[in-house]
């Protein structure tokens, strides 16, 4: 977290927690003394520009991770870790969005307001900062939408995979039910059983069961249940 205090003759920055050093921003300001002579507002531009420029690698890393996650979503096997990574990335993007949104409002005000602190010669520089922040914010919004779509697609693929498994189980159950139904008749105490008087009864029954199971398998295979 950073706090910046700007006045007509001073610029104070306060950093809380982990943060990069502002030494590069200071060197850049010192290399343009003619602009630095316009007041501490140019130093403010240097700090803001440094902060925004350091967001670009973060956005690039998020974009690369999102591309990898998209490949993992369409993998053949379901991976619970992919869902966790999707949620973690969405959470991190939300945190980044909360950090960028105030900076966009601030840079917009510096372009239009505070004439006593921001010389007209420097407003173009703050407009450049606003444009960079706007692009970062748009990239975050686009990736959040892509993440929401990725989570929805992942849930759909999981449901589709479960439906495919249920279809296959139902198909195998239907094939097992056919011979079970035919052979269950032999558990009854019938007097006129075919095998009692006909020697071909058992081979005929076995052939019939194979034909029925084969027919069911062919139909299920053609309808892509198996």
How would you describe this protein?
- The protein is mainly alpha-helical and 226 residues long.
- The chain has 2 domains: 2-159, Magnesium transport protein CorA, transmembrane region (Methane Monooxygenase Hydroxylase, Chain G, domain 1); 165-222, Methane Monooxygenase Hydroxylase, Chain G, domain 1.
- The chain is built from 8 helices and 2 strands; from the N terminus they run ββαααααααα.
- A two-stranded antiparallel sheet has the order 1-2.
- The protein is rod-shaped.
Shape: rod-shaped
Distance linking N and C termini = 57 Å
Number of helical elements? 8
What is the helix fraction of residues, given as a range?
over 70%
What's the CATH topology name of the largest domain? Methane Monooxygenase Hydroxylase, Chain G, domain 1
**Biggest β-sheet, characterized?**
2 strands, antiparallel
CATH superfamily of the largest domain: Magnesium transport protein CorA, transmembrane region
Radius of gyration: 35 Å
How much of the sequence lies in strands comes to under 5%
SSE string, helices as H and strands as E: EEHHHHHHHH
Poorly predicted regions are none
Strand order of the largest sheet: 1-2
| Estimated structural class | mainly alpha
